[in-house]
Amino acid sequence: MRLMNRKTNTAEIADGGKLRPSLREIEALRAMIATGKTTQAARQLGTSQPSVSRAIASLEARLGQPLFARRNGRLAPTAEALALEARAAVVFDLLDQLAAPRSDGATTIRVAAPPTLANFFLAPLLARFIAREPGMRVHVEIGKSTDCLGAVADGSADLGLVDQAASHDGVRLEIFRQARPHVLLPKRHPLAARSELAIGDLAGERMIALSRRFPLRNKLDAAFAAVRAEPLVVAEASTSTFLVEMVRAGLGITILNPFPLELRPEKSMVFRPLDLKMTLETAVVVPARGSLTPAARSLANFIRTEQPESPYSKPSEST
């Protein structure tokens, strides 16, 4: 989609008297994030380098902060730039949907998800989605979070789901759920009587931990070290569902993201929030470059809007 040569009314005023960013400016932002150089961004958009520079400068002036910082000969996007691009992606996906030809045949959406999200969240959600969109078919590949990121990046999946903060140049994350780390423990455990737990409360307790390849495990190890405590890890596992089964079997307690396990509450176990300044995020994974197909965007939007009620996690503020 080439919008740079289209005339855009940049004088349109949004609510509150602020100028809305134009499509020309947002497309320049997306091209700059993709290429890191104004010359390459201009070539990609079929326009001139000064035009790209003016569009970025206009956006920065409107927002009152820089959107790029020079690093190793490239212009690296700031967090504000990436957040703005993520919000604008829906607009470009919608424009692509409007331009896409209508089809009466079934459309297949390829989704990659880790086991816990697939079983506890995605399966019932897809049942509702297909009931609403009977012309859709869904193919789900279940694997590690890193595999899900790679599948979306290389195009073998249209979109994915992850609940571990991870970086990959080929994808971007549309966060839709947030939670604090929670301790899962038997209902009769002495610590279950408290409404909130501190990391020091867990010293000496038998712990079932996530494998060290998960970012959450590394953050929790650092939290224990900060209070000069060492977790008594008696077992490790790579899926949250297995951690739950080990707690059920009486081996110990565990710390994890309550979403989506909270959607199927266990009568014999309880969640207790951990007093840590840490946010665990669950996200839809989409390609970093280009737009989703209309069908994939429809599912991504459905995931972001079909948010369950729960005392343990909440929809992301950007949802």
TrEMBL record:
Residues 21-78 form the HTH lysR-type domain. It comes from the Bacteria. The keyword Transcription applies. GO terms for molecular function: DNA-binding transcription factor activity; sequence-specific DNA binding. InterPro entries: LysR_HTH_N, LysR_subst-bd, WH-like_DNA-bd_sf, WH_DNA-bd_sf. The keyword DNA-binding applies. GO terms for biological process: positive regulation of gene expression. Belongs to the LysR transcriptional regulatory family. This is LysR family transcriptional regulator.
